[in-house]
Amino acid sequence: MERLNSNLYLQNCYIMKENERLRKKAQLLNQENQALLSELKQKLSKANNNNSKGKNSATSAIPDLNLGSTSNPNPSQP
C-alpha cells in the first residue's frame, strides 16, 4: 500500500509539473496572439483610413477571440 502511495505521489508531482509547464506555454501563446491581433487591427485601421474615410471600419469585422474563451486569463486565481 505504501508503495502504491509513493507511485501515485510521484505521478501526481509529474502531472502538476507538466500542468505548470503547459499553463506557462498557454500564457505565452495568449500574449503572442493578443500582440498579433493588435498589430492586425492597427494595420487594418491604417489601411482603412488611407483608402476611404466614409466607409465602415474594417476593424469591426475582426472578432474578439477572447469572447469565446473559457480559460481564465490568470489561472493562479480560481
TrEMBL record:
Q: Report residue spans for region: Disordered.
A: 43-78
What InterPro entries does the entry give?
A: ZPR
Q: Which portions of the chain have biased composition (kind: Polar residues)?
A: 67-78
Annotated signal sequence range: none
Name of the molecule in the record: Protein LITTLE ZIPPER 4
Q: Where is the composition biased (Low complexity)?
A: 43-61
Q: Which organism is it from?
A: Gossypium lobatum
